[in-house]
Design goal:
318 residues, alpha/beta
Length: 318
């Protein structure tokens, strides 16, 4: 078994070297083959292995003109302090393609600051994809604080816990939220949020210099429903109450107004301010989320946006 492990490690070393030569140094596959002393076919396989094993993370540095035009138009239309737009792949069904890389690049810029800052972090599939795109860093001067818990009423947890993964990558102190997304009763929420440890965490979240959050939809494709945080009946009740989207489990209507009552009474996440008092960057794209993104922008629930071309064009239509 040891020999197999050593062989695999050596192959990954070769793949990483081939990936660096191709994506960073700009070598052709023929040049890589010559430098590594392998065939062109082997060089091609090593480059592919570097990508499939996530040994290399590629970011698009060239500012595509159309994306820049769309981001400028969105900033003006919705009075955003920050906006980035990634290209759209019409054939892809991914809900994070491109935007996770842009969000990771922006988060990295904040983490490169020498003075201590606090970064608020949402959870879910999109934010997990962002964490997966982050480079290894050493950021002991900063703090990461979770804006939402990952627990369910039955005691189980979400697959998409983000803050621990992110903290491990960037080596920054992290403050997870040890609470369920929704409590079983209003009284339980008041009890849990009154604990000194919880109050300290919520105070830190209020002090975040910038926050990164996903924007989810309410409906058939609701992540809250698919991941078991709410029931079909609760989902239907939210829709009947006018909910179109959610941020850190706080549901809101088409004008970006927080839904009164319903699940918001039992939401144990950090308060979602309206309008946002500090930089709050929403990261979202895709047809199912368009109504939610537009509502979040309209209601000033987010002050920054990272999305794709197709979604940006939709948001700019009257």
């Amino acid at each position: 078994m040891a020999r197999i492990g050593e062989s695999d490690a050596a192959r990954l070393d070769d793949a990483a070297r081939a990936g660096w030569l191709y994506y960073v140094a700009g070598n052709t596959q023929d040049e890589i083959a010559r430098k590594l002393g392998v065939s062109r076919q082997t060089a091609q396989r090593l480059v592919s292995l570097a990508m499939s094993e996530r040994l290399i993370k590629v970011r698009l540095d060239h500012p595509i003109a159309r994306c820049m035009e769309l981001s400028a138009a969105l900033r003006q239309r919705y009075d955003l302090f920050f906006c980035e737009v990634s290209p759209t792949d019409p054939a892809s069904t991914s809900s994070t393609l491109g935007i996770a890389q842009l969000a990771a690049a922006e988060m990295e810029r904040w983490l490169r600051r020498p003075d201590p800052i606090v970064i608020g972090v949402g959870t879910g599939r999109t934010m997990r994809a962002v964490a997966d795109q982050m480079p290894s860093m050493q950021c002991p001067q900063h703090k990461l604080v979770a804006l939402v818990g990952t627990g369910k009423a039955d005691g189980s947890a979400s697959f998409y816990d983000v803050i621990i993964r992110l903290s491990d990558t960037v080596r920054a102190p992290h403050h997870p939220m040890p609470l369920p997304v929704y409590t079983r009763t209003l009284e339980e929420r008041e009890l849990l949020t009154s604990l000194p440890s919880t109050r300290s965490l919520l105070t830190l979240a209020e002090q975040a210099d910038v926050s990164f959050v996903g924007i989810g939809s309410i409906g058939e494709g609701s992540a809250l429903l698919k991941d078991g945080f709410i029931t079909e009946e609760e989902n239907d009740a939210l829709r009947k109450a006018g909910a179109v989207g959610e941020i850190t489990a706080w549901s809101f209507d088409s004008q970006g107004r927080l839904i009164q009552g319903h699940l918001n009474e039992r939401c144990a996440s950090a308060p979602l301010r309206q309008p946002a008092k500090r930089p709050m960057i929403g990261v979202a794209m895709g047809l199912p989320r368009r109504a939610a993104i537009r509502a979040a922008l309209t209601g000033r629930l987010v002050t920054g946006l990272i999305t794709d071309e197709a979604t940006a064009e939709h948001l700019l239509r009257r």
